[in-house]
Amino acid sequence: MVYTPKHFAETDVAQLHALVRDHNFATLVCTLQGDIAVSHLPLLLDVQRGVLRGHMARANPQWRMFSPEQEVLAIFHGPHHYVSPRWYASHPSVPTWNYAVVHAHGRVRIIDDGKALESLVRDLAEHHEAGEAHPWVMDLPGGYQEQMLAAIVGFEIGITRLEGKFKLSQNRPAADRPLVIKALEQIGNDDARGVAALMRQRQSQG
Fold it and tell me: How many domains does the chain have?
């Protein structure tokens, strides 16, 4: 469970899916008998099947902690940025941080089939190569490919629950929010622009 005041809760499934797709480098957390394991890896969302697909090094002990009786947690971090009181019209005020995150809870199934594992790796590569003028294509020598696939473990996480927390100045007076958006856009880095875009989206919906 993540602490989420009501005004920061995002329950629109399409919005949650969009963040997972756009920011798919996840933090995967699981526990077993009091031990905690964490990995950082890309996960692909399959909306139709309601699963997250990924793989990790076979040498990584985390996959041995997977259990059908125990849920895991995948955390997806969207854009985030510092917010200065200098940007507000309302005072006194204090600094804060705006951000968007999705927590995906679910149960893991190991992918044992070699063809399914190969398909997963191809899908991951194609997802991240999409849009490139000359995308890398997975066309590897047979022996090398088999060696690489043998060194990883594929898995699927059947999603049981999605939690979204989009902290985007909803608790500030309405006059402050356009000022925050303007300041973030002027900063101009990817995270600042991303937070500003999410804030603008909510303004247009409101």
Answer: 1
